[in-house]
Specification:
The chain is α/β, with parallel strands linked by helices and 333 residues long. The chain contains 13 helices and 7 strands. It is globular, with a radius of gyration of 20 Å.
Length: 333
């Protein structure tokens, strides 16, 4: 049975996806996952028989959507890592990726990245994106705190296994494994995650741009970055986009002062495009639940569900400090 694999994504909804699906106002049809992120909800929707449009502006997220949501049957062979590539192309990519040296990784590691990226270029269709999704996960796994905005001096310190053991009681040796070893460890899980379902589509567009050009859908699910929480996904994963020259400008949902105005623009654009909007939020985010409910209420009738949930990153936070919220907006005709 297909199972969503490990992607190491901050704010991922994997543990909430069954609950979110249970609150879907329709049991079949097309759902737009507007801010797909790690794609766990898109994946669960596909498994639930929905046609899914999985959208995120980050290329680091788009490769996951292509690999696990749009992809119906393409898998990778185990000997993919022995594929021959041009030394000249590897050298060219190594020079292009040099901005990652002593910022995220050591120079020899960046050269390995170049070789793996060269292998990706030899692949076609969703097989390329499956490989790139594995590469993305390996890059994140090697970084302390699973994000790309940790200062280099802190990365070096936390990759020192003796220091890590003395301070945290764990050596975290996985930070010092090669990218290839991480990919080999996960290739079976990613291959097994691929399954044939309803036709699905991966997109990489700014939210407003996509809404304005799309055909009507049955439900729009939104899980935008939560203001006043850890929400800077451009910083967490944006260097992956820069590696592949895929960085795009987009609406900013991370700032509290802009959130309601930007969300109002989204809701205005959705008039006539969907009957239902399902919005995820958290009790720690600001603007808070009453402000969100007030905004949504301008566009139709609103109900709210809640569930205990904690996004624990450091282990220091109270596990009962937050609740996950789901607002269901039935849009006025």
């Amino acid at each position: 049975m297909a199972k969503y694999p490990k992607v190491n994504y901050i704010g991922n909804k994997e543990k909430l996806s069954d609950w979110i699906l249970s609150e879907m106002p329709v049991k079949e049809g097309t759902v737009l996952d507007l801010f797909a992120g790690g794609c766990s909800v898109s994946y669960a929707l596909k498994a639930g028989g929905y046609r899914v449009i999985s959208n995120d502006i980050l290329y680091a997220d788009y490769v996951i959507a292509r690999a696990l949501v749009e992809n119906q049957d393409q898998r990778l062979e185990e000997d993919i890592f022995t594929r021959q590539v041009s030394d000249a192309r590897v050298a060219e990519l190594w020079a292009y990726f040099a901005f990652l040296e002593e910022r995220l990784y050591y120079p020899a590691e960046v050269r390995e990245l170049a070789r793996l990226a060269a292998i990706a270029e030899t692949l076609e269709g969703d097989r390329r994106y499956l490989f790139l999704a594995l590469l993305r996960r390996a890059m994140i796994r090697k970084l302390p705190y699973s994000r790309m905005n940790v200062p280099w001096n802190q990365i070096q310190r936390l990759r020192d296994e003796d220091y890590s053991y003395a301070k945290y009681g764990r050596k975290r040796a996985y930070h010092n494994q090669t990218f290839e070893s991480h990919m080999r460890e996960n290739i079976d899980a990613y291959n097994q995650a691929v399954f044939a379902g309803a036709p699905c589509q991966a997109c990489r567009l700014d939210a407003l741009e996509l809404i304005r050009q799309m055909e009507p859908v049955d439900v729009v699910y939104m899980d935008p970055p939560y203001p006043s929480t850890m929400n800077n996904y451009d910083s967490f994963y944006g260097l992956y986009d820069e590696m592949f020259d895929k960085k795009k400008e987009h609406m900013d949902f991370t700032q509290r002062a802009l959130f309601l105005d930007n969300m109002a623009q989204i809701l205005e654009a959705l008039r006539g495009k969907t009957a239902y909007v399902l919005l995820s939020q958290n009790t720690r985010s600001r603007p808070g639940p009453e402000e969100i409910r007030g905004l949504l209420g301008r566009y139709g009738s609103v109900t709210m569900r809640q569930k205990q949930h904690n996004y624990q990153v450091t282990g220091k936070e109270n596990k009962n400090a937050s609740k996950e919220l789901l607002f269901l907006l039935h849009m006025e005709a």
